[in-house]
């Protein structure tokens, strides 16, 4: 898959709530995931299984998605970006509205790097 195909598949799977399946299918074995400084589950996580577990923990903390929106990806060479907005109730911290910008790098048809920008 090229970068646009990966980006569109990523968006589709996330919109369908298939976040963990997305990691299994679209992520490279050696993927690196970067979060904002100070996040409880680690700022940098490496390896597909570790990124899977990080995402699983985040999803397990969700009580309810009140709304969510994922923008059309914007592609530049082997990178794509998308804006995600959520209104979510978490077990650990109650209801929050979140806006974040996600940046991905695709190598050999797989997501090799992801980085998230948001305020906490």
From TrEMBL:
Domain of life of the native organism: Bacteria
Domain SnoaL-like: 1-118
Sequence intervals crossing the membrane: none
Pfam families: SnoaL_5
Protein name (record): Nuclear transport factor 2 family protein
Lineage: Bacteria, Pseudomonadati, Bacteroidota, Flavobacteriia, Flavobacteriales
